[in-house]
Design brief:
The structure holds two protein chains of two kinds.
Chain A (H helix, E strand, L loop, with lengths): L6 E4 L13 H5 L5 H26 L14 H10 L5 E5 L3 H5 L5 H8 L23 E5 L5 H15 L5 E6 L6 H12 L4 E7 L2 E2 L2 E2 L11 H4 L6 E5 L3 H16 L5 E6 L19 H7 L2 H11 L4 H24 L23
Parallel strand pairs in A: 1-8, 2-3, 2-4, 4-5, 5-9, 8-9
Antiparallel strand pairs in A: 6-7
Chain B lengths: L1 E4 H15 L3 E5 L15 H5 L4 E3 L4 H12 L4 E8 L7 H8 L2 H4 L9 E6 L14 H5 L5 E3 L4 H13 L4 E6 L6 E4 L12 E4 L4 E5 L3 H16 L3 E5 L2 E3 L3 H11 L2 E8 L4 H12 L9 E5 L8 H7 L3 H12 L1
Parallel strand pairs in B: 2-3, 2-4, 4-5, 5-7, 6-7, 10-11, 10-13, 13-14
Antiparallel strand pairs in B: 1-8, 6-12, 9-11
Helix pairs in contact in B: 1-7, 3-4, 8-12
Classes of the chains: A alpha/beta, B alpha/beta.
Amino acid sequence: MAKRTTKRRISKSTKPKKQAANKSKIQLNDDIGEKTRLRMWQLQLEVRHVEQRAHDLFFQNLIKGTSHLAIGQEAIASACAAVMRPDDYTFCTYRGHAHTLVRGASMEGVLGELMGRECGMLGGKGGSMHLTDVEKGAMGSYAIIGAHLPIAAGAAWKAQYLKTGQISFCFFGDGTTNIGAFHEALNFSVIWKLPVVFVCENNLYMEYTPIADVTAVEHPAADRAGAYGLESIIVDGNDADLVYRVARDAADKARAGDGPSLIEAKTYRHSGHSRADPATYRPEGELEKWLERDPLKIYRKRLIDFGVKEGKVVAIENAVLKAVDDATEFAKNSSTPSKDVLMTEVWADGGSSWRN
Amino acid sequence: MAELTYREAVADGIAQEMERDETVVFLGEDIAKAGGVFKATVGLYDKFGPDRVRDTPISEQAILGAAMGAAMTGLRPVAEIMFSDFLAVCWDIVANQIAKSRYMTDGQVSMPLVIRTANGGGARFGAQHSQSVENWSMMIPGLKVVAPSTPADVKGLLAAAIRDPDPVMFFEQKSLYPSKGDVPEGEHIEEIGVAKVVREGSDVTIVALAAMVPRALEAADRLYSEAGISAGVVDLRSLVPLDTKTIFEQVEKTSRLVTVEENPRLCGWGAEISSIVAEERFWDLDMPIIRITTPHIPLPSADELEDLALPSVERIFKTVRQGVD
């Protein structure tokens, strides 16, 4: 008998109720707690300012190629990272600077890679769309839509087989829900009961086209969940606390051996699809409406409402800005990759030889 | 020595490696309980159980994606793609992901996995279940490409592929599955990237792969008995790494080179070998290099038509004799 699927819609804000100021401390240390909240604040700031810096460096012609920024989508990656164990796995897309950074990857490594410098985390061989930091559990940014969903399932299979307790988090956009690999990976992960959390960041546009114009259902991920016996979960992706709670539930479920989850987090990218896209296809006023719901704006207010001193909130932001400045200078001063690395690391022996 | 069929050698090779290394796991369509559609994996499920030998849905991207994710986090998966033609539906995972991830991450990830697949014609399956696609893999940097012609090499090279730290595309020629041969008893492992001179010759060197090896050998017998031509035969065994050393040694000896491949004409691996020999051993050659291939057509299904398309013993015999004369 088919499993009955349930629906969950999490969009109600966790604003504290009006009460005495001395109660606010208690609320701050609720199921999420002050320490985790401050960490999520810092992670969101790191993503925002590194992305902003990447944008600026592009227009100084210090970053070439392309780049897909996550400005406006910071809450999802940051909240999920706060849920993860250090040895959990992250798989993300070409819009993956955020997901890589929040695992603790260095800003120098990220900005250096974007700038094609020796200090880049991939030594200049991968670029913006392939950021990876295996030591931190950031198992790669995948630039072909859908590919990394089954790959994330494979890493989860390893964890299941060796009983390590690790789980995979797999992030992708709304456009991914219309490619075959999405459906293959979901079915596969459910039948093998794999410990993987699929997170669809629905920013309303697949590249330049509204997702609603090209999708048979209203909620591109959540409305497909039932086809795989999964709960339909939609969360406000601009509220880190709400994302944290659904991600925590999904991670707990995966770690308990109860299989995968599919979360649809609604969000919005403030910039275009890539640097080539000025996003003129958006209706007038849409961006402005979403800027009101900027995840950082929401979270700054949350912290203040919960009684965190403004000085502390600002100090974290200033420290992040300084770290981004330092990393930018470091990357600018890093040399370009040595020509010796061109022919290395095709094979595990470090070389690229294909004949004797 | 024990006499095994080519198909038995597949299960034997996988079993040998699963016994010695618990990180070796095996997945694919119908490979576990059913023992494989070609019966090449019979017994593995019973021996190693459902955690290590797992049936999958018809989801080639999921199969290879899962193999990749498991390989880059510490397992040594063997994945079966039932027919090599189906690689077309999961080629992204092969060509963009598995092959490139190590280089793109500057060596942060390793990909110790094997993709086994039934390749090639001769079984009357028509154009979508009969192709020889080893050359698709050969042209992608980052993939090793192996295609055995004997049961002993199936076992030894499959074992080597499983132990290899890099991704290996392992092409089993489906018309060879019933063929028999001696396989060494006990642990058996071969080296990937070493061609084998399976027949010494002094007049011409025929370079062949997989099912073309026994055909080249039969043609060589006839060339000697009917035309007095001494033809050597090299079983390439792997395309990447390519053993150009052995090819050069034979070309230096015979001064004539013929390649025999199942691929359709354009960009078959014979073209690459011809190019390498022409560039680097031109002055050793006494005859233009000859490529024997399938014509540049999709493979037909009827017996007579498929036999006409694939390089036959008769065609190899006639083409070589004409070239040498």
